[in-house]
From TrEMBL, chain B:
InterPro entries: Cas1, Cas1_I-E, CRISPR-assoc_Cas1, CRISPR-assoc_Cas1_C, CRISPR-assoc_Cas1_ECOLI, CRISPR-assoc_Cas1_N. Belongs to the CRISPR-associated endonuclease Cas1 family. The keyword Magnesium applies. Its EC number is 3.1.-.-. It is an enzyme of class 3 (hydrolase). Pfam families: Cas_Cas1. The keyword Nuclease applies. GO terms for molecular function: endonuclease activity. It comes from Streptomyces diastaticus subsp. diastaticus. Its cofactor is Mg(2+); Mn(2+). This is CRISPR-associated endonuclease Cas1. Keywords: Antiviral defense, DNA-binding, Endonuclease, Hydrolase, Magnesium, Manganese, Metal-binding, Nuclease. Mn(2+) binds at E145, H213, D226.
Amino acid sequence: MTVIILIAAPEGLRGHLTRWMVEVNAGVFVGNPSRRIRDRLWELLTNRIGDGQAVLVEPSTNEQRWAVRTAGRNRWRPVDYEGLILSARRPAHTQDRQSRN
Amino acid sequence: MADIWWKADPHDLHRLTDRVSSVYIERSHVDREDNAVLVINRRENVRIPAAMIAVVLLGPGTRVTHGAIRLLADSGTAVCWVGEQGVRLYAAGLGPSRSSGLLHRQAWLVTRPKERLNVARAMYAMRFPGEDVTKATMQQLRGKEGTRFKELYQEHSRRTGVPWNGRVYKTGDAFAAGDDVNRLFSAANTALYGICHAVIVGLGASPGLGFVHTGSAISFILDVADLYKAEYTLPLAFDLAAQGLTEERDARVALRDRIADTKLLSRIVTAIKALLNPPGTDFDTPETSALWDEHVGTVAAGTNWSAQDTHPATRSHLDLSPAALGEQHIAIVGPELKDQAPLPGQQP
């Protein structure tokens, strides 16, 4: 199972995603797209997410059995702690900077 | 509408076997909103994951917009209009396949009597496992099939206790029979035709080039569906009638469950593959567009093949004026609207 979460996505992106997945609540998409289609959808999302944020959680063969991808501005970043995926945030007092896609 | 980034590439589309078989829509508007296929009715708005569905069955009381059909076609979803009580009216669709390889193969087989007979025999052989039908004539095969179905009717009637007074079926009015089993059987068959249609166009074959059936625009659909009636729709009709479930909806839903449980979509794909057996072609062949040449096979499309230099001056004979709407050309075009009034039930 794959879950995608979109925050502040530009117009048309959420609707587009509903052709492949079911939007179970605002901005939360669930589905079973194949690996190839996940990759292609993710490529589209990273190109078009703009100032919003996108998170994709997918099955994986690691110990946790899932992996996460993130894109967009000011996002929380997955950090690999010796094989364990955790999430890193910048401290609240740091300035909002444009992050790379 | 300049930037159509939402257009799906063939690689974005799930193969048919990975899709949900069908979604049935009734008494609703099907529209496009925010790049999604949206179903609107008085109760709710639902977005349809079109790229995950093989066929959308549109029942009575549906209204579909151009935008919705465009998205459905782009998603490789077949669309099938079904009438009152599930009579199949019309279907259209361009499946995920974008190549004509299988269609060529099908046309080649169907236009050669010897090849056609072999495919037809193979179709019957799938229904008589363990029997040698390689020498049988079409007449013998039809007879065997008739006998088989007569026995099946009796067998299921005994099994379920539902009386059977013969198959009553009138084309276009499948519900003339009056008894529930016949009606349920017809309704389930209609849904099965829709699904077979989706698989056939999904693979890029033609619904019209049948081997056993001929003459109808859906001959090949009827051929393929006949492979599965004994196993799927017939027992289903008796089961439902025995349980007092006599709505056509019951037939559709039960069939869909059974299709999912038994992975019928993959089975149909495998069967068509085996029957048409296109040597060395893959069903996921990418779209190739070329120009045919009688000596070298194909040459590249999208190229100007004029021997002279394609200087604009040499093309001055082209009529580049906009198409004139002469008296020969009748079109009905609505006025342009300043603001689109929201549909009832649609949030502005």
